[in-house]
């Protein structure tokens, strides 16, 4: 299911498994469309996990992340909001630039 979904999404918190950066307590931190995120309830109908992927819902190993899109890579390389990250990660920036040239 995860590997075949082609829905375009952004990297906002509403798309992250676990509703928190890096997944929080219950998620893996990967990004999914709303169709592939669900809430998990206990026998008393209490929500015990919110906005998690199918593997995190079952306490399984997370999916392997899909590669970043060229649009997202360009955003990280050019947008002012990513300047500090670029300054802290010069090797990753060079790898991304090289990838875009290929």
Show unreliable segments.
Answer: none
Strand order of the largest sheet: 1-2
Question: Tally the helices: what do you get?
Answer: 4
Q: Evaluate the radius of gyration.
A: 16 Å
- The topology string of helices and strands comes to EEHHHH
* E-strand count: 2
Quaternary structure: single chain
Structural class: alpha+beta
Q: Give the mean pLDDT.
A: 91
Give the strand content: 5-15%
Describe this entry's structure for a reader.
It contains four helices and two strands. It is α+β, with helices and mostly antiparallel strands and about 100 residues long. Strands 1-2 form a two-stranded antiparallel sheet. Helix 2 (about 70-80) crosses helix 4 (about 90-100). It starts with about 35 loop residues before the first strand and ends with a helix.
Could you outline the blueprint of secondary structure elements for this entry?
Blueprint: E1 38-41, E2 47-52, H1 54-57, H2 70-78, H3 83-88, H4 90-101
Helix pairs in contact: 2-4
Brief descriptors of the model:
102 residues; alpha+beta
Write a concise synopsis of the structure shown.
The protein contains 4 helices and 2 strands. By secondary structure, the chain is of the alpha+beta class.
